[in-house]
Specification:
Elements: E1 7-9, E2 19-21, H1 24-33, E3 41-45, E4 50-59, E5 62-71, E6 80-86, H2 90-102, E7 107-112, H3 125-143, E8 150-151, E9 155-156, E10 166-172, E11 178-179, E12 189-194, H4 202-210, E13 214-217, H5 225-239
Parallel strand pairs: 1-3, 6-7, 6-12, 7-8, 7-9, 10-12, 10-13, 11-13
Antiparallel strand pairs: 2-5, 3-4, 4-5
Helix pairs in contact: 2-3, 2-5
Length: about 240
């Protein structure tokens, strides 16, 4: 099947021959952005399978499709990557979520840190979570994955919890730490913690050290926070993952 066909995440079970009425967020993109018509081909996927599909019926506010053939899917990376990211300015945070989704990260946890330029209000968390989910969903549809990035609710830095099956924990630190190539190769799950635009507070660095996070140096240059997070995920995928 042509890989250029548009892909859409459908949060329901899918089987060959099944007729599905598309959710509103897909209808809006199909009609208003992509200008697709009855008879056009698309791809649909949930977090288990992917199918080719045909638009059967296209009316205002209603689109029906039929799932045609189950397709081969891209395997998820063997190394599971969990990014703990201190909250950044809006566009920077969106960029990190978009790119780490494309790069194969598994899990994302926003961190409330002392030096953050953005202070997330408690009454706006759910709205922000919905926005981040949309960013990640669009990235998943674009890049060919079928597994969505697991988005956790924001936590304080001292609440960071690393599961027992995590093989390595790194905190990004441009001034200290070993290079990735000097680290022992791992095959399981990696946790990475990246600071805000102004960097970690000294007390936060100590907290992370007590939790088992080791300093990881990405090079001699000082990177922007969003660049550091994306670079770390990409580097780990290149050295230990599927890139």
């Amino acid at each position: 099947m042509n890989s250029n066909y548009n892909r859409f995440f459908i949060p329901t079970p899918i089987s060959t021959g099944q007729v599905i009425e598309l959710p509103n967020y897909v209808i809006n993109k199909l009609v208003n952005t992509l200008r697709q018509k009855q008879g056009d081909k698309i791809r649909i996927f949930n977090e288990n399978k992917e199918f080719s599909a045909t638009i059967l019926e296209l009316k205002t506010g209603r689109i029906k499709i039929i799932a045609n053939k189950e397709l081969a899917v891209i395997k998820e990376p063997a190394v599971k990557l969990h990014l703990f990211q201190c909250i950044l300015k809006n566009q920077n945070m969106d960029l990190v979520i978009q790119k780490i989704t494309e790069l194969g990260a598994t899990e994302f946890t926003p961190i409330l840190s002392k030096n953050a330029l953005v202070k997330l209000q408690s009454n706006k968390i759910e709205k922000k979570m919905a926005h981040w989910f949309e960013i990640s969903r669009h990235a998943t549809e674009q890049c060919g994955r079928i597994k969505l990035l697991k988005l956790n609710h924001p936590i304080k830095l001292d609440q960071v919890f690393v599961e027992n099956n995590v093989a390595s924990c790194f905190v990004l630190n441009s001034k200290d730490g070993k290079r990735l190539l000097d680290q022992k190769k791992i095959k399981r799950k990696v946790a990475i913690c990246c600071g805000p635009e102004k960097g970690f507070d000294a007390s936060e660095v100590e907290i992370l050290a007590q939790k088992g996070f080791r300093n990881l140096r990405l090079g001699p240059r000082t990177l922007r926070a969003e660049t550091a997070a994306i670079s770390a995920i990409s580097s780990i995928q290149t050295v230990w993952g599927d890139h």
